[in-house]
Amino acid sequence: MEEAVLPNQTSVSYFRLQGLSTNWKVQIAVFAMFLIFYILILVGNILIVITIIYDRRLHTPMYFFLSNLSFIDVCHSTVTIPKMLVDTWSEEKLISFDACVVQMFFLHLFACTEIFLLTVMAYDRYVAICNPLHYMTVMNWKVCMLLDAALWTGGTIHSVAFTSLTIKLPYCGPDEIDNFFCDVPQVINLACMDTRIIQILIVSNSGLISVVCFIVLVVSYTVILVSLRKRISAGRRKALSTCAAHLTVVTLFLGHCIFIYSRPSISLPGDKVVSAFFTAVTPFLNPIIYTLRNEDMKNALYKLTGRKEGKEEK
Q1: Which CATH superfamily is domain 8-306 in?
Q2: Residue 193 pLDDT more than 50?
Q3: Spatial distance between the Cα atoms of 194 and 187, rounded to a whole number of angstroms
């Protein structure tokens, strides 16, 4: 009986993704650019994870969460970029309803988990800078594991809730999504019913999470900056470097979330540009931000890449 009911509820079995452009030359340029970005995302973030695992000096809460961030960035970009690269060579750019739902689920899982992770990382920096003597007591490994489990659980609950809302809607046409991947705001606009209540839920959920986390982060770093005024110059420079890197990532990531999910589901000309920045540019910049501004990471990378050379010299 259930199999007979589902086709009546969802008559649209495929969606058509409009992509970033209909111009063939622009599509080729976008393909090349995103392919380069994706390769660099994989190489940069995987290298960070390997470096943190390899170097025992980086076995601290800060780098534990940083390795989580790199892992999430790899997963997050993999949800959307490979499909977009394949669609560049397809005229129809079709995605099945089931694949669209799966893409939305993992997109929101990794995005929401990253928001929570960035907030936890801010708390970690607050404890390290404002209460350094008790840092390893407050941020012990048990606490780190519990926080890690909590942020993944929160991301999963958020994603399941959003995906469930989308699946239950009836879709009978149109079938064109004005983006290069499936996302909840664009998909629910294709439903054959009034979705204003669901749009309010989206704004109150994702929008509220983004705004609240952003406020918490701003307050945390304000307290940190006030605390740094009393530090000696060397310690202050290192702490400021770490905080500046974190603030840059937070601004880039949460800026997109606030722009997309804190307003009604109305397509704007800048949505695709912001989405492209969100899925490709931010995960690409994270390794650069956290390595070029972090002496410990740079030294660990030098040590990792120069290990074979040292053996050869012996």
Answers
A1: Rhodopsin 7-helix transmembrane proteins (1.20.1070.10)
A2: yes
A3: 13
